[in-house]
Amino acid sequence: MAVPSPRAREAGVVVGVYPPGPRNAITDVPGVQVGHATVRRGETIRTGVTAVLPHGRNLFREKVPGAVFVGNGFGKLMGSTQVNELGEVESPILLTSTLNVPRVADAVLDWMLALPGNEAVRSLNALVAETNDGALNDIRARAVGREEVFAALRVAAGGAVEEGAVGAGTGTVAFGYKGGIGTSSRRLPGGEMVGVLVQTNYGGDLTIAGIPVGRELRRGQADKDGSVIVVIATDAPVDHRNLMRMAARTMMGLGRTGAAGSNGSGDYAIAFTVKTGAPLVKNDDMSPLFQAVIEATEEAVYNSLFRAVTTTGNGRTVEALPVDRVLELLRSHKVIR
Description:
- It contains eight helices and 14 strands.
- It is α+β, with helices and mostly antiparallel strands.
- The chain has a single domain (26-332), classed as L-amino peptidase D-ALA esterase/amidase (4-Layer Sandwich).
- A six-stranded mixed beta sheet has the order 4-3-12-11-10-9. It has a four-stranded mixed beta sheet with strand order 1-2-5-6. The protein has a two-stranded antiparallel sheet with strand order 7-8.
- It is globular.
């Protein structure tokens, strides 16, 4: 397989004003873990699953405040209504392919019900989101099930996060190029951390650092339909209502990348905080958190494109973003050196 390009920031594309955390990843938020299971079989299967865990303990017993924001509801996000009704996340967050959602949810239930302390649990809310990877993957094969979900959960860990054509991003396409998993983080002046992870499978007029590189690469607004899932983590003590407000700001970050917000694009954001039991951030103090979400979302999208590699599957080849050409364009516009 081809070697991925450097991440956007490593290549000189600096987004926003707040600095990233040490890994520039959602795992910079203390306790957050990410795991992938990538499925590549034969000529037609290019799919997978990505797990995001707010912490490595029993989430049903130690729920975290959460919220789900719907930018455009063309999607199959299982478990969202209970999250917004109760303001809590009680299972790992799983990202996958559209037709795999019920199979992944069933596997998550098996995983959670088997945890020590859950022997008497009779109701559990699995949170599973998706994008449609049917361009590069035989989506009807529904190739992600219990084995793959358990594998992603077993390997979930802190530290560096693999990006690009891995896990739930194995078969996705963004702006006509190979999309995938991307992540980024921001540290606020008070020490609070915001981390974002994206599964990019959407389109529009690709814009990087304010430059319409899609048009300059002669891609225009091809492949406007699709979907994107954004997961936001923070260690700031915020309640469900302000988590919802943070999740809504992801749409501004996506807008900076040229997102079309088309009829067939399912655009969702899932936000949670790992911090409980502390005085809540006041409304008047939320603006830095909003800005951090916008910046980290934008950069996570770029990382998903920069780190993806050309992929062939299901009778089609989708090229990776030509990063060298993109950097030349950005230099010509004097937005990077």
